[in-house]
Amino acid sequence: MKRSLALSVFAAAVLAACSYMPARMGGWQTLVDGEQGLENFNRIGNANWRPEGGAIVADKGVGLLVSKQSYTDFEIRAEFWAATDTNSGIYVRCSDPAKVSSATAYEVNIWDIRPDPKYGTGAIVNVAAVAVPIVNTAGGKWNVYEITAKGPQFTVRLNGVQTSSGQDGKHPSGPFALQMGAGVKDVQGGAIKWRKVQIRPL
Q1: End-to-end C-alpha distance for the chain, whole angstroms
Q2: By the 8 A CB rule, do 95 and 110 touch?
Q3: Residue range 33-74, pLDDT digits in tens
Q4: Distances, alpha carbon 190 to alpha carbons 25, 59, 62, 140, in Å
Q5: Secondary structure class of 13 (helix, strand, coil)
Q6: What percent of the chain lies above the pLDDT cut of 90?
Q7: CA pair distance 178, 56, nearest whole angstrom
Q8: What is the CA radius of gyration of the chain?
Q9: Is the full-model pTM beyond 0.90?
Q10: Residue 163, phi-psi category: left (phi > 0), alpha (psi -120 to 50), beta (remainder)
Q11: How confident is the model at residue 134 (pLDDT cuts 50, 70, 90)?
Q12: Neighbours of 50 (CB within 10 A)
């Protein structure tokens, strides 16, 4: 009886530990799955990240969730919801994980109302403009970003449509980061929600 109880306690402990580990299927590593996954990232800034309503959410402050691992060549698949005025994005290959910006990483933008829509939602800021400037393309609904980085080549797809593609070799590897706000006065915008975020090294 005591041995059976000890085994049950051990099994429960193992399951609890596993619940905090990123899931891997078919080479994909799931870092955000519904309300789970904040432990897979380091926080920068004061954004109010929290699990809520089946997603990881922020709607105040300015900050980033920076992956604890670095990546070189990879695919990212991210399900997100953004308000129409949200200023957000995914930074990839962050060369300085403590100072993430479009100067130290590649920023795949989420900003439907960017004053210059050339590098708005679907673009890689200062690297690859959207093929056709798109206004109000992501706001108020769930979307799927697919980002591929292989060597200097980058491709971005939004909801199955390729929005930008370009080459740049400044940043060969690094973590990726999920953004809330921009740290620029009057452009923080509305909420961002991440429902599923997966990465697959190539």
Answers
A1: 49
A2: no
A3: 999 999 999 999 999 999 999 999 999 999 999 999 999 999
A4: 33, 6, 11, 10
A5: helix
A6: 77
A7: 10
A8: 18
A9: no
A10: alpha
A11: low
A12: 13
